[in-house]
Amino acid sequence: MKRRKFIKATGLLPFLSSTVFVQANSAVTPEKRLHKAVEDGTRDFFYKPVGAWAADFIPFYDNGEFHLFYLLDWRDTDKHGEGTPWYRISTKDFVHFTEHGEMLPRGTAEEQDLYVFTGSVIKANGQYHIFYTGHNGKMREKGKPEQGIMHAVSNDMVKWTKIPEHTFFAPADKYEPHDWRDPFVFWNEEANEFNMLLAARFKKGIPRRRGLTGLCASKDLIKWEVKEPFYTPGLYYTHECPDLFKMGDWWYLVFSEFTDLTRTRYRMSRSMHGPWLAPERDSFDGHAFYAAKTATDGKDRYIFGWNPTRSESKDNGGWEWGGNLVVHKIVQQKNGELAVRVPDTVTKAFSNKLEHSFATGAGNYSTHNGEVTIKAPGSFAAASGGKMPATCKISASISFEKNTRECGILLRCSEDFNDTYYIRLEPRKNRLVFDMWPRDQMTHQAELDREIILTPGVPVEMQVFIDGNKGVVYVNNIIAMNFRAYNLKEGNWGLFTTDGNAVFKNLSIAML
Description:
This protein is mainly β. The strands form six sheets. Strands 21, 22, 23, 24, 25, 26, 27, 28, 29, 30, 31, 32 and 33 form a 13-stranded antiparallel sheet that branches. It contains four helices and 33 strands. 46% of the residues are buried. The protein has helices at 30-39, 77-80, 138-141, 344-349, and strands spanning 18-19, 53-62, 65-73, 86-91, 98-104, 115-124, 127-135, 147-154, 161-162, 175-188, 193-202, 211-218, 225-226, 240-247, 250-257, 263-269, 290-296, 301-310, 319-332, 338-341, 352-353, 360-362, 364-368, 371-387, 391-400, 406-413, 420-426, 431-437, 449-451, 460-467, 470-475, 479-484, 492-511.
């Protein structure tokens, strides 16, 4: 099955191609329409289709816009039938979106592409091309491969024609027949040919470590020759949604895995041919950001993934397939390693700063010229900044003294500070954590943590974006961490310190 155990059947409804938030009154700005749509619940800030969910965004930049193809899932087989189609949205700023409707319809139960799964888009030979995964679990019952690589073409990126006769499958002598997916096609100038990276698995080896990045080559985008594998570390069950790009003097290979920590990782090399090096921090985000792929506008590169929902809409529900779009900007550091930060356009969208004051708290805290100092050696102390909107951005610069155990930001905390979500810095463990109280686990939520060097006296710059039950935190323009927050619907925002002393500066809370 595609992507762990949470594949869901979907259906197909007509989507009207329309610009989001269109209104008759042209005097109303797009920003005000966005604010109203988010406030009244007709639109999530982090995009998802109305009445459905999105998974595996396939980004493609063309004519001044990012075109984001994606897998649409209604999660209602009885009402909508089985299978996933591709839909498309476009955007210039990752804030406002235009919906273009269905691009690739799902096939029938008798066809290879009942589920139109992940692939890539390329413009070549005077046409737009989509190479995608055709998945149909019913084929296995017939002794045929569940997955094959398929092809569709378009002259205008609106009307697409599938070419079933171009479908090809994994070579039976070497590869697992049911794991042959997620084609990423690009022009290889060095070899003067088109190359295709894909997610595949060897037939032999440790079962959960047979994953690899496969390689195919073509001169005409029709006939493909399977080459020796592109990357075979023998570490993961599979390398889903491969992506490859060059930035400066470095090549970067991106893929998603669910063997160890379920996240999108990358490798780096001075050559497209390797060797591929694993940086010290080889992921862009945590568990709640998956199947991410990149695209560039020629100036900046961004990575597009999804924040998954949780079953029964509960904080400790199982992670589900699909959710909401989240975009990070990729930044190359001096040593070639990659960092992520919030796109500038997303930051600017939250321009309506709210008044706030830290008039209530618990333990030893003080305020002066907009700064908050919390002293809690051997104890806990907190300060409340007041009511927290459902959708907002919170910013803070946090400095802590030596031997401080924990400090950070509180989200939706109760008046008595008992019930709350924590965006927590843990200096002794050099990590960022998303946690909550009450909780039914002995520790913070599994896989919702990130490693980052935390040094006493050195300010930590933090931005937290909350959109209803989902959120993402950025630290020092280096790391990001997505999360979901269902159980606590409302409350205050605040600051806290556990067993130590911390100072909070440049505090702000803003809405759209």
